[in-house]
Specification:
The chain has 10 helices and 8 strands. The chain is an alpha/beta fold and 211 residues long. It has a single domain, classed as Rossmann fold, CATH 3.40.50.300. Helix 2 packs across helix 3, helix 7 runs antiparallel to helix 8 and helix 7 packs across helix 9. It is globular.
């Protein structure tokens, strides 16, 4: 039996997967800031990927901002601790900043949409602090506020938020990792909106990417 890597049908798929893994891991590289999006089915695999990238960034003495649901934040903190990273100590030093996605959303958005000024006031303060505590000024941010908007049937507002994040990436040395649950996108986003969301990112990752 031939090795899978020598199979002419499987080789392109393997190369594509390896490239995607390389792209995802590049989020930890301070010399290559990026804005990536992933559409996922498994919460556990997504959170494992986030924890791994966050651990790499923290090990390089840079800063991490996690904007997640309380449940997901707790899970990532457990994964970091299991990898001998001390989230409590890092939060105290502000190299790790954790933010409840639902709470922060209410600070800059209401039923009519996003207040760009309030978004800027909120996240400029957070990203400026993270930049100061980072050893090199580089910040890795994972956010799922956009997914919370899709879950509420507000995919157009999620698109507006992606555009505001792109403005933030021009003001800070920032790599941004966004994630959308397949079930939320399938239920609320039309094809045109989905294409526009992908277009706001430098790269769209394939689903269920295991690092």
């Amino acid at each position: 039996m031939s090795h899978p890597r020598s199979n002419p049908h499987l080789s392109p798929l393997l190369r594509s997967r390896n490239r995607a893994i390389s792209d995802l891991l590049s989020l930890a590289r301070r010399d290559q800031p990026r804005h990536l999006v992933e559409f996922y089915e498994s919460d556990s695999q997504l959170l494992a990927n986030v924890a791994l990238i966050a651990a790499r960034v923290l090990a390089s003495n840079d800063a991490v901002v996690l904007v997640m649901t309380a449940e997901h934040l707790a899970a990532v903190n457990q994964l970091l601790a299991a990898g001998r990273v001390d989230p409590a100590r890092l939060e105290q030093s502000r190299r790790l900043i954790t933010i409840d996605a639902d709470q922060v959303l209410s600070s800059f958005a209401d039923g009519s949409g996003i207040d760009a000024r309030k978004f800027g006031d909120t996240f400029d303060a957070i990203l400026a602090e993270a930049s100061r505590t980072s050893g090199s000024g580089f910040v890795f941010t994972f956010g799922e506020v956009v997914d919370r908007l899709c879950a509420a049937g507000r995919s157009q507002v999620a698109l507006e938020l992606e555009q505001l994040w792109n403005q933030a990436t021009r003001r800070y040395r920032l790599s941004l990792y966004c994630a959308y649950s397949f079930k939320h996108v399938a239920a609320t986003a039309d094809a045109q909106t989905l294409v526009r969301i992908c277009a706001e990112h430098s790269l769209t990752l394939p689903p269920e990417l295991v690092l």
